[in-house]
């Protein structure tokens, strides 16, 4: 039952790829030939992008161990944010309002906005700077949904916020993006990341799949 549902989903993904890219048979960058063995997850991701080995990634999923959420938008393949736009490598996780969000990596909180009301602006977010100067940005948090303050030192996996529906969310979800060092303000430049504490994600997470956070 599960595998037939996955097969149907893979067909839908392929149709989406065909409509997005023309799905040329000889295009090695497209995902159809790169499906991860034994997982039935279509390995999506942006063409010509190098993704770090997920098994040794410094990143873990942005929610507590044992929890599982659906990715609704990811990178380039299937349902994605934008190609070559600031949010090219962002990932959306469908989350009801008030779910716990955790730090993907340790760092220092450099920006907090939590005054927004769900369904309205501003977009609430927590931004954490990592030791290499990159930033993790956790967006659309609920009102007063920041559990940390500017200047706080954050451990990996620490609770940092509560999900919501503020800013340009459209529906409750976490918009997660890692951005290059320098300025974290929009329009930033996003960076592709993979996650070590979940199922195989060679080219990061695929839209339309649920990912469970494992122990790490
Ligand atoms: Zn998003």
Write up this protein.
The protein has a single domain, classed as Glucose Permease (Domain IIA) (Distorted Sandwich). The protein is mainly β and 216 residues long. Helices cover 9% and strands 22% of the residues. Strands 1, 2, 4, 5, 6, 7, 9, 10 and 11 form a nine-stranded antiparallel β-sheet that branches. The chain starts with a helix and ends with a strand. Zinc ion binds next to loops. This is M23 family metallopeptidase. Keywords: Hydrolase. Its EC number is 3.4.24.-.
Q: How would a crystallographer describe the biggest sheet?
A: 9 strands, antiparallel
Order of helices and strands: HEEEEEEEEEEE
Span of the ends, CA to CA = 30 Å
Query: What's the CATH H-level superfamily name?
Result: Glucose Permease (Domain IIA)
CATH class reads Mainly Beta
Number of separate helices: 1
Round the mean pLDDT to the nearest integer and report it. 85
Shape: globular
Bound molecules: zinc ion
Strand runs, count:
11
Determine the structural class based on helices, strands and strand pairing. Answer: mainly beta
How many domains? The number is 1
| Helix-residue proportion | under 10%
The percent range for strand residues is 15-25%
Keywords: Hydrolase
EC number: 3.4.24.-
Enzyme class: hydrolase
Protein name: M23 family metallopeptidase
């Amino acid at each position: 039952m599960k595998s037939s549902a996955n097969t149907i989903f893979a067909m839908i993904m392929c149709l989406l790829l065909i409509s997005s890219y023309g799905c040329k048979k000889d295009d090695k960058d497209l995902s159809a030939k790169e499906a991860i063995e034994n997982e039935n997850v279509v390995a999506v991701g942006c063409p010509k992008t190098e993704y770090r080995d997920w098994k040794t990634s410094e990143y873990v999923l942005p929610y507590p161990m044992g929890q599982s959420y659906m990715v609704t938008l990811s990178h380039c393949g299937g349902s994605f944010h934008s190609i070559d736009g600031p949010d090219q490598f962002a990932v959306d996780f469908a989350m009801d309002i008030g779910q716990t969000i955790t730090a993907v990596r340790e760092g220092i909180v450099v920006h907090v906005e939590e005054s927004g009301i769900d369904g309205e602006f501003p977009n609430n977010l927590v931004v954490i700077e990592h030791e290499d100067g990159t930033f993790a940005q956790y967006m659309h948090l609920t009102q007063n949904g920041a559990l940390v303050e500017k200047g706080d030192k954050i451990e990996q996996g620490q609770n940092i916020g509560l999900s919501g529906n503020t800013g340009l969310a459209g529906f409750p979800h976490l918009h997660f993006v890692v951005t290059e060092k320098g300025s974290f303000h929009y329009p930033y430049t996003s960076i592709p990341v993979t996650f070590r504490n979940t199922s195989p994600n060679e080219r990061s997470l695929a839209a339309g799949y649920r990912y469970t956070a494992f122990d790490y």
